[in-house]
Structures are given as structure tokens and as C-alpha cells.
Design goal:
The chain is an alpha/beta fold and about 900 residues long. The protein has 36 helices and 20 strands. Helix 4 packs across helix 17 and helix 30 crosses helix 35.
């Protein structure tokens, strides 16, 4: 709390204040701000603790009335258009609830944000034309009804579409929220998972600067608009990218935070002031902050308030009180807000009804336009517009508007519908109203002409997702010969193989510039620091310092045209960058191919929501789960050991997840993925694991390419024997499988065929497809699952060992028509050596032998005593605690 000082010299104080007033009057606010900053810095140098870092300004509009530009549009026509959109949004939700029963929808969110959208649609949001790219608009997910209602007026959606809101199965419906996968020509971004839209917006804006600075796309002054609610700002992702945006001076980025003061269940900051809190956060992160709190009806009051008493009173009222005053009306507002003689005098000539009409800035087109115009012109900083609105605006103060239950209000009575119609002057009869008929102006009306003319000026309709086919030529598999031929007598990790693969791609004449290597902060950890010198690390300002390792060959090299995005310790930020690059083929008409390499443990479990959003947005790219597996990373312990990411990856429909054991497998998968995404232009992405464990990399056997992509191939055939087993191995554990096959033959005369399973997930996907086809066409002879095809001429039970939980290998259990034993790494991890970890988790070569003998015993081919003998031979303690135990 700042110390209270008594004024020992009021005359001197007045002289200082008069001087500041004169400075503002004759030289402008920018000059005054400059002088104040200089004075404060000088005071700090003199050792004066000013305590005056002004992160928060008074609770009034940032831009004064005398600085408002002339509104360029027809306010009356725009109000009528907005009224139709408001009604159709309401009718859509109520129709869905009444006719479909239970599909839901939101009435209040769009009601709060409608004018914010409409000013942008009529005057700011630029659509993409044939020759020019448009702006990015991340619409608030829970307000999609408004986007559909406008698209209906524009002729892009039909009445049938609106009647099938949230009913997509029949093929005529529209999505509940922004889903590019489900509406691929309409929505661009998936934003309804709270916080992700804001984080994506920041990194999309930065990615535009990246493309410009690398001279891949010209600077087109495209803006990235991001809409959200104040409650959404509680999400960590909402504020995770703010410092980056300020640091990189992303003046192409505009946030609009609709502060209607409410979450789903109650107030965002009932005991505080969310606008002021957010202003401090954004200013502290280096943003330009514009507040739009009060509509034009307040202007006269602020002008009359010579002492600043009204601004002071508004600043001291907590949000809970302001919300109560709004709901309870003019008489209550007079007594509560204007609670001194001075304040009462300000409103003495206003009736209670007049006071009730004093509204918030989010519902005033003039105030919004003023803020938007200032935001698009502002340079060297991102801008946030904090605008005060009312949740459920226009839906009726008695039941919904501004009330805690607004979000959950899904019904309107006849009286409320009539009040809504009358408030917004919607031309509907009582019968049309009660029937919830959709409405639009006549085709040749002034309103429709205006609506289309404004969008035509701005380049076309939004939201809109346009994909223009641009297939690229990718390197042939032969380009990776150095990897395909193996490592001879050298030991190499598959991460090192990845480095060689990237080296090939970064030299390819067709796609080198399209590669976007992305890292959180582990390039050296993965042994890929050669990228620093080869293509440099992207920095919007270049490298302003001399790195301490300048004399080293692989010094830390930043450059304005650098290609590597080294994001720091933020997997979420890296994923947002990856999404920006992975969707560039659609958003920028310029395909890019990102490789985000990260600790696999910090992948799907930490940023799974963003990965799902990427899938929804039809992303194309590679996620590389490095230092993968539960037992491959020595000494790190349970928080770094990944046993589940591959299993989680199989749940994302357009994610192709692979666990290559050898460099040639990785090269084949990446080359195939490039062909699928860049040449065939399929909307899939790849999750590929990479290990840091070094071992001899064998050359590629002949004819294994198709099997690697399908998910498994025969690595080596054991030949004939008295007893035979089939051993499946995945990733680095394939080496343990190979060693186990030797032990089985040497110690027990059991012959094993060895299969490298590159993807249990792809095998499951194939098996499910075949099983479905068989079930739905039972009289037809349908092809058997690929796993079964592979095993058709190979006898014996099957044992599968992976470095992941049992459930991963168990994905294919329904498609293995014989005894199937799986080994995996369930339970918490441990810190130790690889050898001890594999013994602890029971997936090393000795346990694989035991599992193979046990499988033969289950089939009655060998006695149980032989399994017991093997347990003793290899020193396995049957009383050892189960790794699954907690």
C-alpha cells in the first residue's frame, strides 16, 4: 500500500499539475506521456522510490470523445442487420432444443459479443481474395451461433442448416463449435477449448513475421484478431504467450477480451475488477491496452464531472456491485453508484429509466469502431481491447441479462420473445415469433445490399477456409541412402538418424525452405545443434550480442532469417507454432512442414488438447517424440519416462503414430509422410518416436517398405524347429527381442521369427476396418486383417514386447488368432540404468524368453517345468514386487 502524504505546499502541487495540463493541451498526450516516463526514470536514478508504475489506468474509456473518428458506416442499417442476426441465433438454439431435444446451445455468449463482431465484419476483418490473403479471426468458440446466423443472411448457409444446428450425423447439420474438420470450408480455427485460441493467435501472428523475415511471404499487414471472454483469461494458455507477443512487438496481433464479468456459474472477479487486473497483466507484458467500458450515453456525464469523482467511484466499485446495479435497474443505480451529493448532482436531470439506459461499451458500435481503428494503426506493440459487456444482453433482465444463470439459460418465454423482438425492432408477427421462424431482410433491401457491399469491400466472407491445391515434389527414398545402408560398425541412435534425415531435407531444392524445425529448449540434448549453424535460430531482431561460444563450430546462432524456432521451455508454445506451420497450406496458401522435436513424455500428456485441436484443423506435419520410452532414458526417473504417448496418439483419428527401431524405418516413415502430406495433400500428421540409445543400425532389408508403413514386417525368419514362436518387437526393445531369439535357440531349441512392429496403432486401425467391413457384409469374403495375413504362414504363439504400457501391444489382440502374450512397462518409472530398468519392468531379453516359453506351455507344447527351469536359469525372482503395484 502506497504511503499517504499530506500536501505541505498545495500551491507548488497545483503548478506542477497545471504544467502537465498545459503540456497535454498544447503538445498532446504522447508528448506528455514521454515527459512523464523520463521524469520517472530520472527519479529512479536519483534513488526516489516512485511506486508509480502505471500498469492500471482509471476505469473509463481509454480514448476520449474528442479523439473519436467519424463513424464510416450506416449505424441504422447495421443495427437492423445485427438485430436479424441476433434473432436467428436465438431461433437456432431454441429450435434445436425444441425439435431435437437436448442438443443444447448457448444464448448468452453471442448476445454479449454481437456488436463486437459486427463492427469488425462491416469495417475491419479482411477476407481472402483470389489475389490477396486476408486476416485471421479466432472467433470465440461459444458464440458460433452468431457466425451461423450471419452466414444465413449472407446466403452461405440455408434454413435447413440452421434447423440442424448441432445435428451433424445426417450430413445437413452444422457444428456446435468451430470445427474445421467437420466444416472444412467454413471454420479456420478450433477455438472452443478455452485458452487455446489465444495461444494459437499469438503464435500465428509470430509465424506471419517468421514467414516475412525469411522472405517466404511478403509483408501484407495482415491482422490476427482473437476474441475471448474474461473468464477464459483464467486459463494458463490464455496468458502463456503474452510476453512473447510483447517482446517480439507483434503489432499484427489484436486481442478483444469481452469482459461481461461472468463465467459459466458466476462472476469472474466478484470481489475485484477483472478489467483492471487484465490491464495490469497486458501492460506488464508490453501490450498496448485500450479500454472500451462505457457507451456514448456516459459521455455527457464524464464531461460534467470536472473533479473526476465519477471515474473515482467507478474505479472503487468491485465487479459484483456493478453487476448487481445493472440487473436491479436505474433506481438502485442512482442510490448505489451516485452515492454522494456531488455524484447525485451529475444525474439530477436523469430519470431512473435514463439511468437504466446507461450501458456498457461492448454494445456501442461507435466506441468499438474507435478502439478497432486505433488498434489497427498502432505500431511496435500488440494491442488488447478490454471491453465491458453484459452477458445475455437483450435477453431480458428479469431472467437472463447480466444474471449469474445467463450461461445456462436455454429457454425464452413468449413474453421474453416479444420483448426481445420489440427491443431490437425485428419485423416478426406474434405467430412467426412463437413458431421460431428464421428471418432475413428482402434480397433487394438496403440492409442486404449494405451487408454484401461491406464484405465485398473487405475481400469476402468470414469465417472461411480456402484450400488451394499446391502439391510439392518430395525427395525420393534414395535421397536417404546413407541412412538406409545402416551404420556399419558404428553405434547410432535413431535421434542421430533423424538429424541426418533433416540434413537431407534442408538441402533439398524443392522443400528445404518449407521445413520448420521446432524445439522447446533441448536441441543440444537431442544432439541436433548442427541446425544452429546450418540454418540458424529465428530471431525477429537478429543477434544483438556476441555469443560466448562464438569460437565453437556449432555456436548459438540467431538470425532474422533463421529457420529453427527455438521457443524456450514451453511445449504449449511450440505446439502453437507447430499448428501455425502445419496449417499454413490453408491459412497462407503456402505449405510448410514442421518438425516439433521434444521429450516424448512431455507430449501427448501435456499438450494433448492442442494436438487434438491440430487434428481438428487438419494439420500436416511431424511430431517427434525424442528420448522416447519408459526405459531408454537412463537415470531420469518417472517424470521423464514415457510409457503412454503412443497409446494416446492412437486415439487421434488423423494421427499416424510410429515407433521405429532403426534409422531406415524412420527414413521410410518420414519420406512416406512427406509424400502423403505434401504431394498427395492428405490432412494427416505423424507422431514418430526417436531414441537416444545407441546401437548398430542395420541396413534396410529388401522389400520391407510397405510393411513398415502398414505397421509390421518380418525382420528375420528363424527357420524350422521342434517348437516355434513369433516375437514382436517395437522401437529399441526390438534389440531385446533379437537377443531373446538367440537365447531361445541356444538354451531351449526354440526357433523364433522376429517381427519389427513399427505401429501397433496402424495395425489396430487396419484390423478395425476389416472387422467392420466383415460385420456389415457377412456374406462376402472380406480380406483378413494385415496382422493375420502376416502370420498366416508362420506358426507358433505370439509374444510382443514394447517399452510402453501393455495396452499398447494389446491394441491388436483381437486380430491375433492364437495365443498372444504381451510385455509392457505399466506402473511408475524409476531412476536407474537401462539394463536394470528393463529387468524391473520385465521386458528384457530374459523375460521375453520366459514369456515365449509360457506361451508354448499355454498351448500344451512344453511342460510347465521348463518355464520354471528357465526362471531359475536367468535368476528371475518370482517374488519380486509387481511393477504395477503402488
Amino acid at each position: 500500500m502506497a504511503k499517504e502524504w499530506s500536501d505541505s505546499d498545495p500551491i507548488e502541487t497545483k503548478e506542477w499539475l497545471d504544467a502537465l495540463t498545459s503540456l497535454v493541451k498544447y503538445e498532446g498526450k504522447e508528448r506528455a506521456q514521454f515527459i512523464l516516463e523520463k521524469i520517472l526514470k530520472h527519479a529512479e536514478k536519483q534513488g526516489v522510490a516512485t511506486g508509480m508504475a502505471q500498469w492500471v489506468t482509471p476505469y473509463i474509456n481509454t480514448i476520449p470523445v474528442d479523439q473519436q473518428p467519424t463513424y464510416p458506416g450506416d449505424l441504422a442499417l447495421e443495427a437492423t442487420i445485427e438485430a436479424f442476426i441476433r434473432w436467428n441465433a436465438v431461433a437456432m438454439v431454441l429450435n434445436a432444443k425444441n425439435n431435437a431435444g437436448g442438443v443444447g446451445g448457448h444464448l448468452s455468449s453471442f448476445a454479449s459479443i454481437a456488436t463486437l463482431y459486427e463492427v469488425g465484419m462491416n469495417h475491419f476483418f479482411r477476407g481472402a481474395t483470389k489475389d490477396k490473403l486476408g486476416d485471421f479471426v479466432f472467433f470465440q468458440g461459444h458464440s458460433s451461433e452468431g457466425n451461423y446466423a450471419r452466414a444465413y443472411l449472407e446466403g452461405r448457409l440455408t434454413e435447413k442448416n440452421l434447423k440442424n444446428f448441432r445435428q451433424e450425423v445426417n450430413g445437413e447439420g452444422i457444428s456446435s463449435y468451430p470445427h474445421p474438420w467437420l466444416m472444412p470450408t467454413f471454420w479456420q480455427f478450433a477455438t472452443v477449448s478455452l485458452g487455446l485460441g489465444l495461444l494459437q493467435g499469438v503464435y500465428q501472428a509470430r509465424f506471419l513475421k517468421y514467414l516475412e523475415n525469411r522472405k517466404l511471404l511478403p509483408a501484407l499487414d495482415r491482422k490476427v484478431w482473437v476474441y475471448c471472454g474474461d473468464g477464459e483469461m483464467d486459463e494458463p494458455e490464455s496468458i502463456a504467450g503474452l510476453a512473447l507477443a510483447g517482446r517480439e512487438k507483434l503489432d499484427n496481433l489484436i486481442f478483444v477480451v469481452n469482459c461481461n464479468l461472468q463465467r459459466l456459474d458466476g462472476l469472474v472477479r466478484g470481489n475485484g475488477k477483472i478489467v483492471q487486473e487484465l490491464e495490469g497483466i497486458f501492460r506488464g507484458a508490453g501490450w498496448n491496452v485500450i479500454k472500451v467500458l462505457w457507451d456514448s450515453r456516459w459521455d455527457a456525464l464524464f464531461k460534467k464531472d470536472k473533479s473526476g469523482a465519477l471515474a473515482k467511484r467507478l474505479s472503487e466499485c468491485v465487479d459484483g456491485d456493478l453487476q448487481t446495479a445493472y440487473v436491479r435497474g436505474g433506481a438502485y443505480t442512482r442510490e448505489f453508484l451516485f452515492n454522494t451529493d456531488e455524484l447525485k448532482a451529475l444525474v439530477a436531470d436523469l430519470s431512473d429509466d435514463d439511468l437504466a439506459q446507461l450501458n456498457r461499451g461492448a454494445h456501442d458500435a461507435v466506441k468499438i469502431y474507435t478502439a478497432y481503428a486505433a488498434a489497427v494503426q498502432h505500431k511496435e506493440q500488440p494491442t488488447v481491447i478490454l471491453t465491458l459487456g453484459v452477458k445475455g444482453f437483450g435477453l431480458g433482465t428479469k431472467t437472463t441479462e447480466g444474471r449469474n444463470v445467463a450461461h445456462n439459460s436455454l429457454e425464452m418465454s413468449e413474453d421474453e420473445l416479444q420483448a426481445f423482438r420489440d427491443r431490437f425492432n425485428i419485423p416478426l408477427t406474434d405467430k412467426e415469433l412463437s413458431s421460431l421462424n428464421f428471418a432475413k431482410p428482402e434480397k433487394d433491401s438496403d440492409e442486404m445490399k449494405y451487408l454484401h457491399a461491406q464484405r465485398e469491400k473487405l475481400g469476402g466472407f468470414l469465417p472461411s477456409r480456402q484450400v488451394i491445391s499446391q502439391p510439392l515434389v518430395v525427395p525420393d527414398l534414395s535421397a536417404f541412402d546413407t541412412i538406409l545402408h545402416g551404420s556399419a560398425d558404428r553405434t547410432m541412435s535413431t535421434t542421430m538418424s533423424l538429424g541426418r534425415i533433416l540434413n537431407v531435407l534442408l538441402k533439398d531444392k524443392n522443400i528445404a525452405q518449407r521445413i520448420v524445425p521446432i524445439f522447446s529448449d533441448e536441441v543440444r540434448t537431442f544432439g541436433l545443434e548442427a541446425l544452429f549453424r546450418q540454418v540458424g535460430i529465428y530471431s525477429s531482431v537478429g543477434q544483438l550480442y556476441t555469443p560466448e561460444d562464438k569460437e565453437q563450430f556449432l555456436f548459438y546462432h540467431e538470425a532474422k532469417n533463421g529457420q529453427v524456432l527455438e521457443e524456450g521451455i514451453t511445449e504449449a508454445g511450440c505446439m502453437a507454432s507447430w499448428i501455425a506451420a502445419a496449417t499454413s497450406y490453408a491459412t497462407n496458401r503456402f505449405p510448410m512442414i514442421p518438425f516439433f522435436t521434444y521429450y516424448s513424455m512431455f507430449g501427448f500428456q501435456r499438450v494433448g488438447d492442442l494436438i487434438w485441436a491440430a487434428g481438428d484443423m487438419r494439420a500436416r506435419g511431424f511430431l517427434i517424440g525424442a528420448t522416447a520410452g519408459r526405459t531408454t532414458l537412463e537415470g531420469e526417473g518417472l517424470q521423464h519416462q514415457d510409457g503412454t504417448s503412443l497409446l494416446t496418439a492412437t486415439t487421434v483419428p488423423n494421427c499416424r503414430a510410429y515407433d521405429p527401431a532403426f534409422g531406415y524405418e524412420m527414413a521410410i516413415i518420414i519420406q512416406h509422410g512427406l509424400s502423403e502430406m505434401l504431394t498427395a495433400e492428405k490432412d494427416v500428421f505423424y507422431y514418430i518416436l526417436a531414441m537416444n540409445e545407441r546401437y548398430i543400425q542395420p541396413p534396410m532389408p529388401t522389400g520391407v517398405e510397405a510393411g513398415i508403413i502398414k505397421g509390421m514386417y518380418l525382420y528375420s525368419e528363424g527357420g524350422k524347429g521342434k517348437h516355434k514362436v513369433q516375437l514382436f518387437g517395437s522401437g529399441t526393445i526390438l534389440n531385446e527381442v533379437i537377443a531373446a531369439a538367440e537365447l531361445l535357440k541356444k538354451d531351449f531349441e526354440v526357433v523364433a521369427d522376429i517381427w519389427s512392429v513399427t505401429s501397433f496403432g496402424e495395425l489396430q486401425r487396419d484390423g478395425m476396418a476389416v472387422e467392420r467391413a466383415t460385420m456389415l457384409a457377412p456374406e462376402k469374403n472380406v480380406t483378413m486383417p494385415y496382422v493375420e495375413q502376416c502370420l498366416q504362414n508362420h506358426e507358433g504363439p505370439v509374444v510382443a514386447a514394447t517399452d510402453y504400457v501393455h495396452a499398447y501391444a494389446n491394441l491388436i489382440r483381437p486380430y491375433v488368432p492364437r495365443t498372444y502374450v504381451t510385455l509392457g512397462t505399466d506402473g511408475f518409472g524409476r531412476s536407474d540404468t537401462r539394463e536394470n530398468l528393463r529387468r524391473f519392468f520385465e521386458i528384457d531379453r530374459y523375460y521375453i524368453v520366459i514369456a515365449a516359453l509360457y506361451a508354448l506351455k499355454k498351448e500344451g507344447k512344453i511342460p510347465a517345468s521348463l518355464v520354471t527351469a528357465a526362471i531359475k536359469k536367468y535368476g528371475i525372482d518370482p517374488q519380486k514386487p509387481n511393477p504395477i503395484s503402488v
